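Incident log, support desk, overnight shift.

02:14 A customer reports that sequence design results differ from what the structure should imply. Their input is reproduced verbatim below. On-call engineer (initials T.W.) acknowledged and began investigating.
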């Protein structure tokens, strides 16, 4: 051993130093590299094991061979292998660094297991709150912020006010604004949830917070709907968070205005996407399937939205992804712009000289307005967000906005894998991770590696990145009467055959249904070719019907309608002075009805109509009893004369 030490000590000091430094640097960098690649569960597992074995064997060989070279004072091989080892150390260091960036960014996308839930007690700004004030509260005991924490807040502040129970936030808000109640308990995200309703668009300025109560609790929305990986067909729900700040924390509220369902098949690389208009009138799952606008389900949490959409589309949602639209600016900038064919305004088009103009990402007008010329072009971040948000310059309003959002999402998806440098990739990843939250865990996201690899292979071979099928739900206008709030709301009904076609398309993408083989095909050069869009053009059966008006119609018409629809029917005759009397309707016709016009037909079980029995006498001066009797006698004689004449002419 002493002889060995003496020989080693007589070797070149510089070479000996290089030998020691290389071994230490190699071991440390290899350790972190192995630690990093072991995190990449499911990605090229065999290849990762081969790499680890190879680099460990190389370390052993370098250490042993170059130790002999030092003892023999042969330094040429030592220098060459040390240079190679330095290259490996650099690869390990950069590899571990970027792998950790990817892993941490993916990990940041998963919503937190714990969240801070908050309940607020709010009033209108001009309302004085005291012990005599009445407070509105949601009666649903499963509502954490609207019921559970509201109860605790009530006790904590030692309130003694009377409580009015409500099943619906919008009805409760309506009563607050009409001052039927003085204050209400609302969830922490109430401004985001309700400010997109026209009536409550200034809710942040209209209201003030009196008390609040917060608790950190288990994230009730972090429910893994599925344990599927990316090698199986999947269904995603994209939820829009229209925030005014960049970034997206795990407790960010979404307003339900953007609901996009995407089915994806990793084998065929086919995708079907459908956006559900925010005002679509559907049964809300967490409210005993009571009909309401679909975006109202967001007030009751992600699970309520998922259950409602699953029932509506008849597909199981595997994962949800919350997307902050403010982050679209950063993402598109990281992609160096996206190519979009901007649709020309179709409503009030001359307002901005034919341009599409929208407020910027900070919702500023004036000289901050973002204006875009129509046509195919490359949009920057602010332009892409403005186009995705705008609906007031298009006749289809929200329906047109949905199409524009699909255009932007499709353009981003196609551009995402086209980065040209590691710096571009890092910018893209940062923009995505900061503005996305999901219930997918990191290992599930990593399982998409093979799918991404196939997409890249498609791009390199000149094929499409994805085959994207954009579905379109045909809708119609509904002006629904809400009995509880004594008001009307503008909603959208849908056509049943359109929905069925979309449901079928989603199932075909998922491999649950077989695509019907097209056996005939016709083409004409005189007709513009239109790409098939599931659901588009189907307009037969309407989803719901509204109760009609029978005022001014006959008794038989109302009775026949009720018999056809299984509604219990009754009628009453009314005279002047009765509350149901209608002076504008002729005698013998229906003057009023017990069911309001515009109520959902399916909610009506019985109807009573009120028939005008007689007309009130109209005279400038009241007549005496004798004059009245004389007038009646004249009328009787006149009627007899008319009957005689009719008999004579055979009528």
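02:41 Re-run completed on a clean worker. Output:
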């Amino acid at each position: 051993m002493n002889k060995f030490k003496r020989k080693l000590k007589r070797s070149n000091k510089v070479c000996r130093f290089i030998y020691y430094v290389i071994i230490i640097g190699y071991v440390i960098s290899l350790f972190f590299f192995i630690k990093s690649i072991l995190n990449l569960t499911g990605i090229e597992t065999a290849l990762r094991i081969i790499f680890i074995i190879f680099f460990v064997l190389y370390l052993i060989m370098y250490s042993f061979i170059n130790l002999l070279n030092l003892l023999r004072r042969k330094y040429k091989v030592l220098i060459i292998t040390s240079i190679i080892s330095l290259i490996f150390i650099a690869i390990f260091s950069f590899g571990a660094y970027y792998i950790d960036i990817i892993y941490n960014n993916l990990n940041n996308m998963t919503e937190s297991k714990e969240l801070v839930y908050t309940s607020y007690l709010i009033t209108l700004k001009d309302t004085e709150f005291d012990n005599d004030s009445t407070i509105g509260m949601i009666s649903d005991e499963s509502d954490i912020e609207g019921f559970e924490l509201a109860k605790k807040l009530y006790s904590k502040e030692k309130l003694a006010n009377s409580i009015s129970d409500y099943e619906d936030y919008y009805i409760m808000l309506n009563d607050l604004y009409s001052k039927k109640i003085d204050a209400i308990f609302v969830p922490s995200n109430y401004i985001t949830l309700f400010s997109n309703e026209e009536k409550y668009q200034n809710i942040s300025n209209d209201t003030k917070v009196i008390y609040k109560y917060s608790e950190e609790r288990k994230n009730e929305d972090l429910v893994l709907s599925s344990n599927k990986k990316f090698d199986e067909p999947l269904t995603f729900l994209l939820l829009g968070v229209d925030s005014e700040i960049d970034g997206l924390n795990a407790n960010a509220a979404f307003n339900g205005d953007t609901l996009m369902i995407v089915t994806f098949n990793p084998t065929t690389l086919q995708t079907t996407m459908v956006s559900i208009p925010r005002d679509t009138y559907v049964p809300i799952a967490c409210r005993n399937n009571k009909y309401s606008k679909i975006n109202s389900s967001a007030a009751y949490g992600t699970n309520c939205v998922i259950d409602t959409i699953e029932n509506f589309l008849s597909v199981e949602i595997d994962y949800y992804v919350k997307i902050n639209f403010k982050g679209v600016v950063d993402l598109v900038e990281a992609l160096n712009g996206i190519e979009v064919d901007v649709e020309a305004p179709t409503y009030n088009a001359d307002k901005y000289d034919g341009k599409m103009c929208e407020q910027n990402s900070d919702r500023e007008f004036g000289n901050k307005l973002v204006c875009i010329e129509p046509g195919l072009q490359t949009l920057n971040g602010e332009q892409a967000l403005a186009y995705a948000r705008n609906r007031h310059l298009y006749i289809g309003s929200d329906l047109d906005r949905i199409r524009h959002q699909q255009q932007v999402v499709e353009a981003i998806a196609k551009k995402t894998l086209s980065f040209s440098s590691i710096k571009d990739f890092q910018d893209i990843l940062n923009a995505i991770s900061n503005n996305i939250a999901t219930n997918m865990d990191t290992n599930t996201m990593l399982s998409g590696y093979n799918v991404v690899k196939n997409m890249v292979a498609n791009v390199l071979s000149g094929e499409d990145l994805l085959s994207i099928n954009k579905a379109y739900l045909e809708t119609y206008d509904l002006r629904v009467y809400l009995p509880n709030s004594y008001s009307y709301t503008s909603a959208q009904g849908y056509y049943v055959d359109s929905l069925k076609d979309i449901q079928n398309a989603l199932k075909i993408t998922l491999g649950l249904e077989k695509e019907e083989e097209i056996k005939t095909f016709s083409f004409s050069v005189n007709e513009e070719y239109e790409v098939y869009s599931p659901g588009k053009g189907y307009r037969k059966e309407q989803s719901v019907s509204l109760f009609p008006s029978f005022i001014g119609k006959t008794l038989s018409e109302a009775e026949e309608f009720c018999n056809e629809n299984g509604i219990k029917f009754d009628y009453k005759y009314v005279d002047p002075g009765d509350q149901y009397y209608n002076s504008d309707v002729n005698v013998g016709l229906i003057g009023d009805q017990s069911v309001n016009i515009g109520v959902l037909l399916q909610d009506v079980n019985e109807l009573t109509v009120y028939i005008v029995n007689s007309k009130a006498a109209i005279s400038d001066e009241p007549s005496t009893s004798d004059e009245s009797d004389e007038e009646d006698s004249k009328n009787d004689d006149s009627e007899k004369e008319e009957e005689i004449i009719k008999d004579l002419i055979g009528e």
